[in-house]
Amino acid sequence: MLLTITTTRPPATDLGYLLVKHPDRMHRFDVSTGVAYLCFPEAKPERCTAALVLEVDPARLATRGRDGFTLGQYVNDRPYAASSLLAGAMNRVFRSAMRGECPERPELAATPLPLELRVPVLRCPGGAAPRPGRSAAVDAAEATMAQHLFGPLGWTVDARPVPLDERFPEWGASRYVDLTLSGEARVADALNQLYVLLPVLDDAKHYWIAPDEVDKLLRAGTGWLAGHPAKEMITRRYLAHHRGLATQALSELAAIRLAEADDAPAGDSIDAEPPGAAEEDAQLPTEARRVPLAEQRRRAVLAALAESAPTRVLDLGCGSGALMADLVKEKRYAEIVGVDVSPHVLRLAERRLRLDRLPQRQRDRVRLWQSALTYTDDRLVGFDAAVLMEVIEHVDPPRLPAVAASVLGHARPARVIVTTPNIEYNVRFPTMTSPLRHADHRFEWSRAEFAAWCADAAGRYGYRVEQRGVGDVDPEVGPPTQMAVFTREDT
Question: Residue 177 belongs to what H/E stretch?
Answer without folding.
Answer: strand 173-185
